[in-house]
């Protein structure tokens, strides 16, 4: 699934575009805890989250996440948009809830990371 | 038509080739086409060409291209006294067009052959959307080459300077030391140091996996300085030939039970910190998982020191 298709599946709106819509997304993930993003995030992953503060963008940057989707139609504050522009992160908004947004993407074929064990040392 | 690269380096020749194969016609065409109505006379065509400084134009009915008329047809009509003939009587009806979605290779193939010096560009319905000539093609390709050239040069400069430090500057043991000062509760700048560290390591051309692991660890450590200290702290990153050493030092409240804080899930973060997505009690566990060595030293009232080591495996900054 590429970014364009992902946005379509979510009826989403691109708020900050820093990536080519044709770019492929390897997998998706969802978290409201920043440490979870850092623990389970992977390079190029799309992150669905209910948080909209600028730290989400920083966390994404550190975890190698390129695209963040804000669920439940949450509009991020201007600082978040600005940081995303500077950090080369793309932002998308959808009106679906976390549950439905994840479900729609998974159903449309976007895989997750598979089972993870916290002790697991593999990256 | 052939693009002759003159004395460009091989790398730039392949850049031209790459652009020709990857650029869509839409982005090299002129979108505002001067089109001629089928009811025009050759005299009107002559006046239009003079006024608009063009040497040819498609003849369009509705939005469909039904022919093409060039300055040669105008000259012929003058020689043969046919200026009051309709353009449809003298135009070429066998028009070669290109799709706006095709690649520039298609244009290069068709332009110049059998005297085609302009190709009308059409969409899926065959409607006219633009025109491409040798001029529009060369102008836009040059513009794109200039852009990617500048980008490449900028990147080269950065990586060159950074990655050669271990070769250009010699000592018995060279290392690069980066120091950052982190303020407590400063959420506007929280993570900035980590972001700079990550970018610096990228410029040093460290393997992406290592950069990622260091990034995750140093960000967790930085956030702990922001969240759990009352006077901030310092981050030091030492890049050596065979490893990266990171230490964070603060003179904050310190930690009483080290075993407890190392347990995944334990956190003393207040509610408002949790609302921001922190305070899962996973930070130190994450650091331990991604690093090769982690050492936490602390005592209540005496501050906290965290040391993290990442060893390079099968790689050394020497041969990069
Ligand atoms: N520099 C520090 N000074 C004082 N206490 C600290 C420091 N760093 C960590 N701690 C203590 O260790 C606990 C665990 O830290 P850890 O980073 O694992 O989780 P967290 O910061 O609470 O949550 P998370 O990192 O998941 O957002 C903290 O809640 C805090 O009590
Ligand atoms: Mg923490």
Keywords:
heterodimer, A: 123 residues, alpha/beta, Udp-n-acetylmuramoylalanyl-d-glutamate--2,6- Diaminopimelate Ligase, Chain: A, domain 1, five-stranded mixed β-sheet, 5 helices, 5 strands, B: 320 residues, alpha+beta, CBS-domain, Heat Shock Protein 90, 2 domains, five-stranded antiparallel β-sheet, three-stranded mixed β-sheet, 10 strands, 40% helix, binds adenosine-5'-triphosphate, binds magnesium ion
Briefly say what this structure is:
The complex is a heterodimer of chains A (123) and B (320). Chain A is α/β, with parallel strands linked by helices and 123 residues long.
Description:
The complex is a heterodimer of chains A (123) and B (320). Chain A is an alpha/beta fold and 123 residues long. Chain A has one domain: 3-Layer(aba) Sandwich (Udp-n-acetylmuramoylalanyl-d-glutamate--2,6- Diaminopimelate Ligase, Chain: A, domain 1), CATH 3.40.1390.20. Chain A has five helices and five strands. Chain A has a five-stranded mixed β-sheet, with helices on both faces. In chain A, α4 (78-87) links the parallel β4 and β5 (90-93). In chain A, α2 (34-40) runs parallel beside α3 and α3 packs parallel to α4 (78-87). Chain A is globular and about 35 Å long. The two termini of chain A are 23 Å apart. Chain B is an alpha+beta fold. Chain B has two domains: 15-138, CBS-domain (Roll); 157-319, 2-Layer Sandwich (Heat Shock Protein 90). Chain B has helices spanning 10-22, 42-52, 71-79, 87-90, 104-110, 134-163, 165-168, 192-203, 208-228, 258-262, 271-275, 283-290, and strands spanning 56-61, 64-70, 98-99, 118-122, 128-133, 176-182, 233-239, 243-250, 293-298, 304-311. In chain B, α9 runs antiparallel to α12. Chain B is elongated. The model of chain B has no long low-confidence stretch (mean pLDDT 87). Magnesium ion binds at residues 220, 223-224, 283 of chain B.
């Amino acid at each position: 699934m590429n970014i364009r298709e992902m946005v379509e599946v979510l009826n989403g709106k691109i708020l900050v575009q820093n990536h080519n819509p044709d770019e492929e997304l390897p997998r998706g993930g969802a978290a409201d805890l920043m440490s979870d993003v850092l623990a389970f995030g992977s390079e190029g992953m799309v992150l669905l989250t209910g948080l909209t503060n600028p730290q989400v963008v920083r966390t994404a940057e550190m975890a190698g996440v390129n695209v963040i989707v804000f669920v439940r139609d949450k509009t991020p504050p201007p600082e978040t948009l600005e940081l995303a522009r500077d950090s080369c992160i793309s932002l998308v908004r959808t009106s679906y809830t976390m549950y439905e947004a994840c479900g729609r993407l998974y159903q449309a074929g976007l895989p997750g990371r598979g089972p993870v064990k916290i002790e697991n040392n593999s990256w | 038509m052939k693009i002759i690269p003159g004395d460009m380096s091989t790398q730039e020749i392949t850049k031209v080739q790459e652009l020709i194969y990857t650029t869509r016609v839409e982005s090299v065409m002129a979108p505002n086409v001067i089109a001629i109505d089928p009811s025009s006379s050759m005299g009107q065509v002559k006046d239009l060409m003079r006024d608009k400084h063009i040497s040819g134009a498609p003849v369009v009915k509705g939005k469909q291209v039904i022919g093409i008329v060039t300055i040669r047809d105008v000259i012929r009509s003058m020689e043969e006294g046919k200026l009051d003939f309709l353009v449809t009587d003298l135009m070429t009806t066998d028009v070669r067009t290109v799709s706006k979605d095709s690649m520039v290779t298609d244009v290069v193939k068709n332009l110049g052959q059998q005297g085609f010096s302009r190709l009308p560009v059409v969409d899926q319905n065959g409607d006219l959307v633009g025109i491409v000539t040798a001029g529009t093609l060369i102008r836009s390709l040059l513009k794109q080459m200039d852009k990617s050239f500048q980008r490449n040069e900028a990147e080269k400069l950065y990586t060159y300077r950074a990655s050669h430090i271990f070769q250009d500057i010699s000592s018995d043991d060279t290392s690069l030391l980066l120091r950052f000062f982190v303020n407590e509760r400063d959420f506007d700048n929280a993570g900035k140091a980590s972001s700079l560290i990550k970018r610096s390591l990228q410029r040093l051309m460290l393997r992406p996996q290592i950069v990622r692991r260091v990034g995750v660890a140093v960000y967790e450590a930085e956030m702990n300085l922001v969240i759990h200290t009352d006077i901030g702290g310092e981050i030091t990153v030492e890049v050596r030939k065979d490893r990266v050493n990171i230490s964070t030092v603060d003179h904050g409240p310190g930690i009483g039970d080290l075993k407890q804080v190392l347990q995944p899930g334990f956190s003393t973060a207040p509610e408002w910190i949790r609302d921001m997505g922190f305070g899962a009690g996973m930070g130190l566990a994450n650091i331990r998982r991604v690093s090769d060595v982690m050492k936490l030293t602390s005592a209540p009232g005496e501050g906290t020191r965290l040391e993290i080591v990442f060893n390079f495996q099968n790689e050394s900054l020497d041969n990069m």
